[in-house]
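Appendix C: a fully annotated inverse folding record. The material below is reproduced so that readers can follow the format used throughout the book. The structure is listed first as tokens, followed by the designed sequence.
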């Protein structure tokens, strides 16, 4: 059986056998420039994100993964139902893939939907070892669409991930660039009174936490299918088509609030499971989640896909267009950053949980709708 190499955002070639596919993945070092400066990264088959893997329900797959790094590596098939020894978690399901060696994964495809795969070794996921997977149903897809795109969201730092981890261990608020100030203290006194404000500060102090700590790490460059907002990813459509967007959050740390100004989205699948369609203007996608949505753009104009980080420090963005290559996106101003409350912590400290809206409620109000 021939092994065919993957290409970025292309379907992996199928062998001549109808119910068996064989694939080859190679893990290597590479240099990237997402921020204006070159940095070390890791890649599968030379791309970040890794190539799209596309399977069919009922298929038996064989995937040869070669580790060209100088450290142990692995691939975990996130959300897939596989035999324990094929799960790809070193120290639990297998020993990992030693440097210079090839491990062969073999498992049957028992489900359908949108998923993703990533390294489960060290900091390799943060360094670029992640990619999308699609599993097509063996029969007609219950979700009707004319064309589809994978939208893989991620975050990137030029810093060594080990250094980021060390900084967080030394100080959990190391990357919290939006801490409350003495001016906020006096503003809160004006709004809530001295007693309630002091009680609130003491409660957060006792927990050694901060209400502005929405993301453990800020200062990321955000990517859509491996592309920055300076050179955005673009997907073409024909007006009137039902376009399926398969959103995957492959970020290390970031939650995103996703919207497409001018278009409503019908959520038809979450984490690979088909759902009764829910129409939304915006949805929040957590780390490792997937959402499939249907949009039907009617006008022959560009539509911006905006994925705003929950800490409001930036966007991952792309464009749906009737033309090839838009060149740039026009990002809106970041919306106000919310604060966590005791209600978000599962507490009702002095009744404050009843007096202040939760972070989730605040964001939904800013969006003007409820999220699924």
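Designed amino acids, in order:
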């Amino acid at each position: 059986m021939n092994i065919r190499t993957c290409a970025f955002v292309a379907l992996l070639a199928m062998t001549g056998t109808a119910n068996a596919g064989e694939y080859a993945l190679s893990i290597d070092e590479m240099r990237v420039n997402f921020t204006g400066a070159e940095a070390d990264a890791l890649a599968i088959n030379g791309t970040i994100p890794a190539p799209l893997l596309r399977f069919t329900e009922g298929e038996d797959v064989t995937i040869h993964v070669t580790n060209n790094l100088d450290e142990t590596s692995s691939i975990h098939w996130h959300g897939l139902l596989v035999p324990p020894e094929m799960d790809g978690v070193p120290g639990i399901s297998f020993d990992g893939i030693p440097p210079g060696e090839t491990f062969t994964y073999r498992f049957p495809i028992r489900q359908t939907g949108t998923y993703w795969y990533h390294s489960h070794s060290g900091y390799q996921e943060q360094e670029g070892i992640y990619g999308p997977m699609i599993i097509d149903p063996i029969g007609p897809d219950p979700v009707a669409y004319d064309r589809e795109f994978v939208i893989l969201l991620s975050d990137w730092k030029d810093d060594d991930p080990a250094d980021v981890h060390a900084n967080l261990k030394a100080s959990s608020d190391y990357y919290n660039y939006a801490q409350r100030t003495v001016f906020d203290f006096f503003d809160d006194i004006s709004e809530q009174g001295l007693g309630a404000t002091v009680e609130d500060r003491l409660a957060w102090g006792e927990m050694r936490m901060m209400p502005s700590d929405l993301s453990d790490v800020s200062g990321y460059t955000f990517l859509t299918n491996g592309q920055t907002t300076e050179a955005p990813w673009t997907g073409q459509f024909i007006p009137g088509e039902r376009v399926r967007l398969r959103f995957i959050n492959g970020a290390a740390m970031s939650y995103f609030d996703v919207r497409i100004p001018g278009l409503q989205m019908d959520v038809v699948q979450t984490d690979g499971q088909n759902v009764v369609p829910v129409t939304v203007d915006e949805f929040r996608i957590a780390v490792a989640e997937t959402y499939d949505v249907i949009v039907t753009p009617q006008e022959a104009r560009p539509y911006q896909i905006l994925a705003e980080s929950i800490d409001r420090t930036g966007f991952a963005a792309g464009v749906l267009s009737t033309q090839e290559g838009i060149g740039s996106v026009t990002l809106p101003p970041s919306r106000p950053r919310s604060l966590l409350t005791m209600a978000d912590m599962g507490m009702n400290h002095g009744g404050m949980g009843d007096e202040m809206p939760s972070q989730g409620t605040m964001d939904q109000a800013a969006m003007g709708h409820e999220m699924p």
